[in-house]
Amino acid sequence: MKDAGRRWVVDGLGDAGFAKLAHDLKPSELWSLLLGVMEQRSRVRSPTAVRQQWESDRFVHPAPVDQRTLHALDGHLLAVAKDFEALELSPLAPLATCSSVALTSQNRSVSTVRGTEVVSDPTNVLALESAQRLRVDPGRIVRLATCHRCVRAQPFPKLPGFAAHFRIFCLTTAGHETKDRALLAAALVEHIELHLSALARLEQHGYAFGKREVTLLTTAENESLGSRIADAVQGAPVSMGSLEHAYYDGLRFRIDVGRSADETLPLIDGGAFNWLHALTANHKMSFVASGMGAQLAACLFRAGAASASP
Questions:
Q1: What pTM was computed for the model?
Q2: What are phi and psi of 263, to 5 degrees?
Q3: Domain 67-308 belongs to what topology?
């Protein structure tokens, strides 16, 4: 086991036992073994223990926003994304959906004992769907959208609106790249403008976001492309900056909104990703993904939300 700080996990099994579970058993054998273990543990679990977990476990607490509010919010966001096919995703995705193609740890996702994981980032799931469609028809452009509840296992700020599970509005665009990276540039412009339109629509329905700050971050080799994108965006000025985060494929945008006259909060994030290169075995495929913290918007920027937030 590589992580010496978690050595206690394997102390009862020993290195050989852990290696057998981690590497040697066939997946179907491992899933069956773990299901049997959980069945035995559930048999001796009391209702009191279940209630105590309900009260203390951050993963199972209800969302801090009324469901009707979130339902209406989804409707407004998906209405703006009228040119994107809206998918209702499963709560589960294949094991390693994020960690196999992105620079992230599996420990950030909640893994199950059936070879799946709870969705922690819908954009990775939409990349899988896009790859499947492009394998059938490599010449098409795939535009997908979803509003989805995610679960992430890493610590989160103890601030209103932040939780272990939350709702996010996502857009993705995928396709075979064209001359001068026109597909990538057009997709990023479309995503930025669509999110700005979503903010404007929500402000017609009881939300107030204050000022918008749009920032486009690029690596040195993508500065010229970034300038093209920034010049093409309508609806808000775009400032440029340097991208140093390897999670993105050379281009990233952020839209911060104003909580007060002197404070902004990053509500929307997106960029280019190389995930389709591995999923389709085709390095000429481009993929753009973006997301808005929908639950965060409902908690912090909706009329009367301050008094309703925890």
A1: 0.90
A2: -140, 130
A3: BirA Bifunctional Protein; domain 2 (3.30.930)
